[in-house]
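Continuing from the previous page of notes. For each protein in this section, the sequence appears first, followed by its structure tokens. Read the first protein now.
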Amino acid sequence: MVIATRRKTAAMLAIGDELLSGRTREANVHYLARWLTERGVALVEARIVGDDQGAIVAALNTLRERCDYVFTSGGIGPTHDDITAESVAAAFGVDVVEHPRAARMIRAWYESRGEAVTPARLRMARIPDGAELIDNPVSGAPGVRIGNVFVMAGVPRIFEGMLNAVDTVIERGAALHSRAATAWNLPESKLADALRDIQAAHAGVTIGSYPIEGDEKGVTVVARAEDAALAQAAIDAACEAMRALGVDPVLEDRRGDPRRDM
């Protein structure tokens, strides 16, 4: 495991017309954000584009120049509308080639299950020239890494399996410590002035305020910092502000389990 000397950044590019039409719910950004946070990498941007090569190339080139890592999901399957491999190759200015080891992996996967190795299935062995394979423990067909871009499947359980396969090549940064407190029956607007002052007084801490709607209304305040003590000090100040407004806050521990502030 390598520890980065500065905080690394990442972006997510989810690809597929089905995401933009609402037919499929995008779930990989949420998982990736938590996975990266645990490794001290900041997910700073997420985009969704359709199955359009020009849009994919433009988004990918922007993100890979801006961030240390880019993760794509979707569009590497066997059908005609899976164009991510071609689009990534175009972004890097290389050809698409059939990778011999990828083809062997795909053949072995389907033959072991007594299924035919069709031309459509072998299409998943086509990758940008010069890319490295990312093992797929779930369904056999590999993802690829080229430069700082990791090209992965859109199916969540396959995406997650591929993430595990690249775990050792992601440089770790300092982990972010998070502390949170919720005030029920307190409008966010009543806490706004106090939170502005608390943020100004706590350098190195990012403070977020999130209103809660529904049958029970309230506001959750989250303090994040690389130093756990700084995050705790900021959330303690937020709790004092909540009490000053007549509300007893509920704290959350690092697993997100609520516990009553004593």
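Done with the first. The second protein uses the same format. Note its length before scrolling.
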Amino acid sequence: MAKPIINVEEVSFSYDSKSSAKVIGDISFAANEEEFVSVIGPSGCGKSTLLRIMSGLIKADEGKVLYKGREITEPISEIGFVFQDFALLPWLTNLENVKLGLSRSRLDDSEKEKRAAKLLQQFGLKEFDDAYPNTLSGGMRQRVGIARAVASNPRVILMDEPFSALDELTAETLRKDVERMLRSKKIAVDSVIMVTHNVEEAVELSDKIVVLSDQPSHVKKMREVRMKYPRDRHTKAFQDMVDVIERDLGRSK
């Protein structure tokens, strides 16, 4: 039986500590080992904020997030983060950006460099070690961002709309590459939690989908997606699941 690796327990949050108006109302769910979880909900419901609370970057007003039973109160090396806007430092080379993911590692500098170079090779960027991010396409920059997130061998990857800044063709290619990489265990990750606004994307990648309400957000539904990988968007089963999530969101036609 799969064990929870991340537990979100009755988390609530308000941007203004003096206000009683909450963005996140009362959210609880778990992400198990060997599970890809997507969190989806209306714009402004606090999805990205929730992810930052889970990473330890933001403190919840109430409730807590546990990693393997231990409360997360600050960023930890066991949890990696992939940002929507890549968040690469333009004055560093791609290799140096990936090495930032090893800043807390006890490896010496040469070992860090070897690890970063190997990851860039795995993500198809072997020839771009010494290039700068502004010379890369959006998809390539996000590959660098993902490589940085997994550099420290985290057990959990948090992804904040990682494909939304890309054109659809690039996003489709990168989704498939990330899925193959994670599920083939070329990267030793136990769980992935992704925030997205894209229903088709959630159905394509996820084992479980957490559907949030409008703010103050709470969990409206949790849906398991049991289709085999890789998933074909043109099948009836896929479209039926998309329709289910759309109805959960209140977007039914």
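What the second structure shows: Residues 79 and 156 are 5 Å apart (CA to CA). The radius of gyration is 18 Å. We return to this in next week's lecture.
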